[in-house]
Amino acid sequence: MMKKLISSVTSLMVAGALFAGAPAVANTDAKNISEQPPRDLLENVVYEKEYWEFLLENHPVFQYEKEGRLIGNIHLSDRQEEFIDFRSADVYAERHPELDRAAVTYRLGKETFLDFPNKYVGPKTCGECHPAQYEKWTRSRHANTLRFPDEMVEIEKFGLEDLNSPVFPEVGPASILPEGVTADAVYAVIGTPRTKYGFLDAYLVRGTYHVRDGLLSEGTGTIVAGTNQFSRGWAESITPEVAKQIASYVEGFPTTIEEFAKKGTTGSDVWGVTSYGSNFENKFMFQPASSYCEVCHTMKFNFANKDEFFDALGDAKKLQDATISRGISCEECHGAGGHMVDGNGGGMPSNCERCHQRFVWNEVAQERDERNPFNSYFKSSCPSCGTEGSQMYFSEHYSKGMRCTTCHDPHEVTKNDWTSNVTYAGMKKTCEDCHSVQAEFYANSGKHQAGGCRGCHMPNLGSCENFATIQFPDQAGFDNVRASHIWNIKVDKDAKTLNPPEGEPRENTVKGWTIARDDNNNNYLDLMWSCGRTAFADASVLDGGGCHSPVQSKLPKSLHFENQEQVYERVMKWQTPVKDGYDHVRNTLKQIDNKIGKANLTNSEKAKILGLARQARDIADKVEKDGAWGAHGARYTQRLMDEAVVYVDEAAALMKL
């Protein structure tokens, strides 16, 4: 079997270069005066060669397999697969003969943890001279995307004995680390209390498995594919009782762990623990952190050379002691050493887009607009984590020049306590800074003010856990923990934000879902996501008393929206009279403008008519600029429009129209 595995991984490497001993191809296009020009995409793939050779020879999973103590098939996943083969990147490259290859979904950092020695100094060194930025950063989730087991403050926060204790025992046995994987066998835990927990084992390999009837650290028991990632939404909020409540109006929603496994494609045998990167008892990825995790959950070591690195692999403590930087730290954006090394200056060799702009090439998008042949990356029927930037890319905000740092302070992404189950972002700008007219209407919206602008315009839409691929976008749920960055709401009874490939059923196991676009080629949100979603990690829903979710809402039952048609009917009750009044005002104003010059009126009469018309026009202009036609404040908008109608009707009466 080992020979077969080596053969499999060989086929994954570019042109067999890794295991055929072929040298990396020089980047002949690079015009760089440095003695070591930057690696191109192929060279980055080939750079994994020795690491892969070591893992295939030494990682315990292969010993388990050799001894017949492994349930599930191993799928070897490397940089070739993730960066070049993944999500039609090869098809996109074929359409551009000038490109030998392309990475569509993922971006490489300037350096990898396989660079020895690196020039990283670590965030503490940066903090010595930049204390204000460092202070903000330490409170951010960016600083905590990857932590050592002994740094898990959650043990005290949740009153746990260890990382294998049930976090919410009243719901089920879900724990931060899965069965048979103890803290001493783990280099680091990935994730925070808001969403999920995964792990990197002592060989820096993504944990897509658990160990049954034994311990990984002792090499005992059986390695089993799946049931490997703690998912808070399911472990705490979507309890079996809540699942039954959801099933009462969502046909087919599973209510037992067995039904989850049957309905989805990944399965699990522990409520609240997902099979991430794997299928329960069937197939799992063997994937080094260099192939995937380090793109966003980074780590850098102070090893002088690769021999020191290989000597430490398998010993979690050695790796931890040699870690100089981890998480989204200063140097991930500003470069190794920042301005302290080789006169690099405080530049930005990487930015938000590396982790938050995950695209896929899409043939339908290509046919619609050759200039924008992309959509956001989906795992199943909801856009994945890290797609905020690709959502924003197809928005009016982006086309007008807005970028991540227009609104966000990258040093303080998280405003509230990062250990909370929700995120309040630290904002440099808010919606009302640019949308003053809309802010005026919204200030008169009554109870809707509780959720803020983001409550309707930035619903939690993206997935992070993908529990057994159970997602029902038409009912706006339920595995949605990432705020959308689309803003544009389409008022339509049938239009859906999230859609399967043309002609495919709207079942959540179908691959190839995309975000819909309007006539201006901008993404849009449908009414169900804006108003009726069920989202347990969405601060807007929680602040808004559950909004209109049939599960979370504290409003009267008549305001619980189970489908989009119900939302549409409610919005029409607001918008129809406002639009009717607006049309009446505009048509009457047009008549006044056409006839006032010919009318037999005194100057005093003309002045009064024009004054009334101006007041009506000002209101109509304001309502039009607001653009919500009552949705930002139904009663307030209607009062304004009624006032405008009175003005034009009085003016028309004076002119005897």
Automatic annotation (TrEMBL):
Secretion signal span: 1-26
UniProt domain Cytochrome c: residue ranges: 104-254
InterPro entries: Cyt_c-552/4, Cyt_c-like_dom, Multihaem_cyt_sf, Multiheme_Cytochr_ET, Paired_CXXCH_1
Keyword vocabulary terms for this entry: Heme, Iron, Metal-binding, Signal
Highest taxon of the lineage: Bacteria
Keyword Cell membrane set for record: no
SUPFAM superfamilies: Multiheme cytochromes
MF (Gene Ontology): electron transfer activity; heme binding; metal ion binding; oxidoreductase activity
Residues spanning the membrane: none
Protein name: Cytochrome c7
Species this chain originates from: Ferrimonas marina
